[in-house]
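Reviewer comment 2.1 asked that we show a complete input and output for one of the modelled complexes. We chose the zinc ion case, as it is the one discussed in the main text.
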Amino acid sequence: MNNPDFEIKPLVFPVSSRETELTVRPKFAHAKKVLDSVDSIKILPVHSPVAFNGYLDNWDDEPEAEFIRLEDGTLQIKLTCPVEDEYCVWMKSAGNGRTDATATVFVYALEADLYKMKPLKGDFHLHSTGSDGREAPEFVAAACRCVGMDFMALTDHGNYEPSLKVMKFLQNFDTEFRAFPGEEVHVKDNMVHLVNFGGRASVNDYFREDEERFKREEAPYETELAAELPPDTRFQVGASEWAFDKIREFGGIAIFSHPFWRPDRWAHNYIGMDTIDALMSRCKFDAVEVPGGFCRHTNEGNQLMRCKYEEYSIKKGSPIPVVGVSDSHYHPVLTGEDPFPFMWNYTVVLAEDSSFEAIADAIRDGRSTGVSTYKDDAPQVIGKFRICKYVYFLLREYFPQHDKRCREEGDRMIAFLGR
Ligand SMILES: [Zn+2]
Ligand SMILES: [Zn+2]
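Response of the prediction step:
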């Protein structure tokens, strides 16, 4: 991780065969002393695109990077990043051994398509008192900002209205934090849970308005399915795919939720393997939740889901769009210990901006990752290789500072509610 004693600008570059400039400014006197001793700099791609034989001490033949030293100790370094990768800026002092760096700095070079994207952290499967959650919708929103979310959607069971309350609440603040409509969709008798993220209308309301209409609309979905599937499976898959299409018709992103929930004592949330396999192989949703949940025990289901996700991505020939969500029902930002369980699973997207359309595009295009960090464990990032590689860098070098700024704003929102 980059040394917080230095200010590094910029952290992310466009890939180029031309030189660009990196500045490393010492923030403190002791940091200036370190940079004052630097007399040579080399640049090393962290995941070298080409093999090289030998160890780094055979690196002496590599050209040194040019740099100038300003009066305040800032180093202005000429840097060339010809391929997309993380780069280690290796700053050495004479007498400090051949290989030991006096200081290192990490930056990232991106191809133009990703360079123009903004990293955004989001959670769009959350519950409030609008269903079986513990706190009011507005409090859940403030709590999401406290843990660094850039966007969210409240998705109460069968209830779309609370998500609109959150959007109204955020109008009280001059903030970049965005909230979108949402709901967890429950078609009667279908055990499969789905999320309507961002839809302009409620699929639950549409279903409840006229069940006969639903039956008429859903029947062709079942007809299309193989006759060898048992009737219950055909209904679960047909009803889910009807809902996926309805969510999209309303402009939302259709998400297949927590496929691997274990049956509880009421056998709630019990989905047969044949339903999971049919939904995954047909892949009619926009994205699937892979890491999810706010309890330690959900990790096992998440790992099983990861295996399924990888198997079906291989069969499909490309990674299936993935998201991570907390599905949390309580948000103890005032009383619980850090890190809060509801920030263990979430999504990072690389989107053109923070509009719903840009975020939806990012999810559909596979510029979306599911992130899982149980307590202090190292994060696991799930998605396309190229996107995951960059997101790991962001989790290390960008999000910690970002999260601190969000926390301050989230605290102000909590104070506003508690006034
Ligand atoms: Zn659910
Ligand atoms: Zn839920």
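The first helix runs from residue 29 to 36. We note this here for comparison with the apo prediction described in Section 3.2.
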